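Trying the structure run again after the queue cleared.
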Amino acid sequence: MALVYQIFTSPLGEILVAGSGFAVTRVMKGDDKHQLSADFRLQHEDASPVDKSGYIREACSAIAAYLNGKTTRIDVAVQVGGTEFQRKVWHELRQIPYGKTMSYSAIAEAIDAPDAFRAVANACGDNPVPLIIPCHRVVHKSGNAVGFGWGADAKHYLLELEQRQHAGAKSIA
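Done. Tokens:
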């Protein structure tokens, strides 16, 4: 199936979600939807805007609901490549609970590579589907929210959104 994409406006700016009819392969952020589309099409010349792919539309709706604080989960299938090491890191990132963070070094220890915290940071940077694989939940061991491909403002927004939602869910229980 050909690669399709859709762009929607979010509290973080324009979000591009791409994939096939059954899985998301890429999530990107930009400030201008035309530039974001052009940048994506430079990498994927055969990609086309969504017209019939219900799955990508559903994925956009799920991501938009998450970014607007209406849900705590983004339940969509992903299809990502990556090296064996990257896939281990990305799997571990998906284990970090909503509203929580984990350090790069703790991730390295969790995947039995305790000295590989820099490689963990690189794997986070290479994550093709931010938000779905929540690399924004990884912080420096000091607790400082550093390193996110979408920028510091986006990382702070996401962490604050999750912490607010998580605290609200606790107070209801």
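The chain has a mean pLDDT of 91. Worth checking whether this holds up in the mutant runs.
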